Amino acid sequence: MPRRGRKGYGETLSPRELEVARLAAQNLTNREIGERLFLSPRTVEIHIGRALRKLGLPSRTVLTEDLLRDGSRTA
Q1: Is pLDDT above 50 for 37?
Q2: With the C-alpha atoms ordered 47, 20, 70, 6, is the resulting torsion angle positive or negative?
Q3: Which of 11, 20, 31, 50 lies 20 to 30 Å from 39 when distance is taken between CA atoms?
Q4: Is residue 66 part of a domain?
Q5: Domain extent for 39
Q6: What's the mean pLDDT when you consider all of the chain?
Q7: Is residue 59 part of a domain?
């Protein structure tokens, strides 16, 4: 039987999580990211938290450094 609902991405970043993570890597605040993507700051916070968990990173600062250093994660 086919699965219903949204596609799951497992441990891979979803397109939205990746988009939010890229903006966070530019040192934008949750509010600034939300304004650009028409999301609430809380939704941005959730996307960043999921990206951190999936990438196994402890903080947003490391996320920023990791994305800027390792271009393969942003492809």
Answers
A1: yes
A2: positive
A3: 11
A4: yes
A5: 15-74
A6: 87
A7: yes
Confidence band, pLDDT 50/70/90 cuts, at residue 20? very high
Per the listing, tokens 């939704």 go with: 43
Instruction: Tell which wins on pLDDT, 30 or 72.
Output: 30
Residues making up the chain, counted from first to last:
75
Instruction: List the structure tokens of 1.
Output: 């039987």
Separation between Cα atoms, residue 25 and residue 15, nearest integer Å? 15
- CATH number of the domain to which 30 belongs: 1.10.10.10
Share in percent of the chain as helix, strand, coil (round to 5): 65, 0, 35
Question: What φ, ψ does residue 5 adopt, rounded to 5°?
Answer: 95, -165
How many domains does the structure of the chain reveal? Answer: 1
Are 54 and 11 in contact by the 8 Å Cβ rule? The answer is: yes
